[in-house]
Amino acid sequence: MPHRALMTDLSIEGSSGARPSRSPLVERAQRHIWNNLDQPLRWREAAAAVGCNSPRALNHIFVRETGETIKEHVVRVRMLVAMGDIRAGIKIGAVALSVGYRSRSNFIATFRAAYGGNPRTFAPPSRTLPVGEDLETQCAREQPEGQPTCTSQ
Q: In the prediction, which pLDDT does 14 show?
């Protein structure tokens, strides 16, 4: 399962700092969310997958135990996973797809609402080469004088 350590941290408390979940139903719902993070959330399917006949009842229990709705939880988890992936250097379009967004613009809007900035501002700086320069030329240019070049190391 991807991001297992993060999943453990997030299943313990909701965004409001609510108490740990004690309901097996809520724990199954959180596991279902994590296992299907890249898929659109369908309420009826999610409720059925965790053994609950009513999506509304599941959401009510979820709110009571975690302090957030299932939808809020899904968005929060997706944005936390997205932030980690973006900081790891994964391309924004790939991150959007991996956390269930089919539209890059919807992903960016949700990310901005969560973090107050464009995902690109959280990505590591890219090392782009000047036009017409290859990696060997750039490496040689950046080496201190008298040091071996990248190709001779």
A: 45
